[in-house]
Amino acid sequence: MLQLLKYEFYKKWKLFLIVICILALAQGIILYQLLVKDNWVASLAIFTTIGYAGAIFIFIDSILSYSKELNNKSGYMLFLTPRNTYQILGSKVLISFIELIIGFVIFVSIGYINYGIFANVFTEVFEFGDFVISFAEGAFILKDILTFIFLALMQWFNVIITAYLSITLSTTLLSQSKLKGLISFILFFVISYFISYIINFARDLLTEVTALSFSSISMISTVILLITSFILYILSAKLLNKYVNL
Known about the structure:
This is ABC-2 family transporter. The chain is mostly helical. It is 89% helix and 0% strand. It contains eight helices and no strands. It has helices at 2-36, 40-71, 73-79, 85-121, 123-139, 142-171, 180-209, 214-243. It starts with a helix and ends with a helix.
C-alpha cells in the first residue's frame, strides 16, 4: 500500500507544485488588495473563492485521475502489479482523503494568517468580527465545531467515492452501452440523493425518539457517511476485480 501511495504522489507532485504557486499568487493578490487598495471586501471574496475552487479542484483531480487509470496504458501497467484491486483502489481513495485534509489545513492556515492582518488594518470591521466569533463560541462548544468540520470533510469525500463507483460502473457493467457516460452521470446523482435521504431519515428518526445535541447529529451523519463510503468502495473494488480485464 505504501508503494502505491508513493506512486500516486509521484504522479501528482508537479500538479501539487502548480497549485502551491497559484495559492502563493492568490495570497499576493489578497495582500495587495488589502494593504495597497484598502479593499477588504475583494480580499475576502478572493479567499472564499480559493476555498470553493480548491474543493472543486480536488474532486475533479480525483475522478480524472481514476478515470485515466482505467482507460489508458498507465492503468494497464498499474493493474498488472502484484496488488489486488482493493489495495489499488484503496490507495486512490486514501490519497483523495489526504488531499482533502491537506487542502483544508492550507485553507484554514491562509485564513488564520489573513485574519490577523485584516484585524490590524480594519479594526472597526473586525471588532464586529470578534463579536460574531465570541457569540459563536458561546453558542457552540469546541466539540460541535470539530464534529461539523469532520462531517463536512466526510461529505465531500463521500461525493468522491460516489463518483468512483459511477466511473467503475461505466467501465464494467455499462461498458458496452453507447450511453454509459450519461447513465453513470445520472447514477452519480441518484446514489448521492439516496445517501442524503438515508442520513436525513436516520437523523429525523432519532430526533423524534430522543433529544440530540448538534455534535451528536453530526457524529451520526458522519458514521453513516463512513459506512456508505466503505460500501461504495467495496462495490467498486468487486466490480473492477470481476469485470475489468486489464
